[in-house]
Amino acid sequence: MFAKSNLLGTCLGLGLLAGCGPLPSPDNIGPIRVKGGYQAQYRDPDARTGAQAFLVAERMNAETCVSDLAGTGNSAKGGLLTTLSLNGERLSHNDLVDIRIGDDETFNGDYVVSRDGTLKLPFLPPVRAQGRSTNQIEAEIARLLVSEGLYEEAPRISVRVADFASIKVSVSGAVFEPHAMEIGQVSGDEIDRARQAALGSSTEARNLSVALRSAGGVRPDADLSRVELHRGGKRHIVDMRGVFEGRHSVDVTLLTGDEVVVPSRQCFQDDLMRPSPISPPGVSLYMSNLTQPATGNAVSAIGQSVRAVPYGTRFMQAVVDTNCVGGARASSAYRSAVLFTRNPITGVSTVIERRIEDQMRRPDRDDYDPYLLPGDAIACYDSNVTNLAEVARVVGIVGIAAAIVP
Question: Where is the Polysaccharide export protein N-terminal domain (predicted)?
Answer without folding.
Answer: 90-161
